[in-house]
Amino acid sequence: MPKMSLWLSSFVLAITTSVQAQTVATQNPSLNSLPTVQLLLSKMSQDAARINYRGSFTYQNQTSELQSFRVEHWIENGIEHDRFLFLNGPERVIVRDGQRVDCKAMGDELLQGSFASLGKTLIKMDQLYQFEIRGRERVAGRWSRGLQVIPKDPYRYGYLLNIDEETGLVLKSWLIDETARPLERYQFISIELDPDFNQFKSKSLLREHKAVADVTPCNPTEFTKPSAWNVGWAPPGFVFAGQRKLANGQSMLMYTDGLTTFSIFIEATTSFVPEGTGKRGATLAYMSRLVVKDVTYRVSVVGEIPVAAAAKIAQNITGL
């Protein structure tokens, strides 16, 4: 299949992480009365990886047409599996087979609210974002509760979320900038919980892309900082979540604040390195040049963060 763009690959994996980290199987009744922020956040942050679901959702950013996807997620023998089928254009499917459900990378721990095991230096989410409950709304035939997530500094974006009252699943999400303009939005239009996972074993498509499920190994307690680079500044609350050596020789470093992530790509080059920014929806790519011991490196900061944050991150990277 044609090579997928970076933003789309990142988006599809982000949707999987968001659904897994923000879904919870619960036996409590629907939240017909106004819930507290703590209750709603608790439902979103529980480990719901064991839930099976399938559904269809739409996605759009500022520069793309409305796109439609079908998603299938199930657990088999303790292993997570996902299939993302493109419903527009050529028939394509992204396959994502993960780790055992009890195997958590550092970024997953943060996304699921497990701050205690990551040290006293981590800043809790309520120090980074303000949370406000909004009204009820039906999304994909299910009642949801609105939640506005407002950043407390200029280094991250805000969210408008609709949370399924029964399960805690995010049924609709708008990522918004500092002027409240939507940068990216996705919304389920249909969803089925706990279907028979045997139905997911459909025929393989020719245009199939195998996606990598994780960034770091299980329980990566040794990964407290990059092994070859010094990132001198990151926005408050962002912590190092892992690293990988890519096939093209690039080093990839990943950071998260528990809700948003950005990655740093560093690659030695003998070519001219243009400096500047590119943007697709909320995904920003900031490129700069770094020279260490007479070797020139191309540095790219990619993520759903404002340009001021990306530029400051790139300007404060040095070699060890």
Describe the structure.
The strands form three sheets. This protein has a ten-stranded mixed beta sheet with strand order 5-6-7-8-9-1-2-3-4-10. The chain has a six-stranded antiparallel beta sheet with strand order 12-13-14-17-16-15. A two-stranded antiparallel sheet has the order 11-18. It has helices at residues 6-22, 37-45, 106-111, 125-128, 307-315, and strands spanning 53-61, 67-76, 79-86, 93-100, 129-139, 142-151, 158-164, 170-176, 182-193, 208-211, 229-231, 239-245, 251-256, 261-268, 276-280, 283-292, 295-303, 317-319. The chain is 14% helix and 43% strand. The relative contact order is 0.16. A hairpin with a 5-residue loop joins strand 12 (239-245) and strand 13. The protein has two domains: 6-211, outer membrane lipoprotein receptor (LolB), chain A, CATH 2.50.20; 229-319, Phosphorylase Kinase, domain 1 (2-Layer Sandwich). By secondary structure, it is mainly β. The model is unreliable at 1-32, 103-123 and 211-221 (pLDDT under 50). It is built from five helices and 18 strands. The radius of gyration is 20 Å and the shape is globular. This is Sigma factor AlgU regulatory protein MucB. It is found in: Periplasm. Residues 38-199 form the MucB/RseB N-terminal domain. Belongs to the RseB family.
Main traits of this protein?
320 residues; mainly beta; outer membrane lipoprotein receptor (LolB), chain A; Phosphorylase Kinase, domain 1; 2 domains; six-stranded antiparallel beta sheet; globular; disordered N terminus
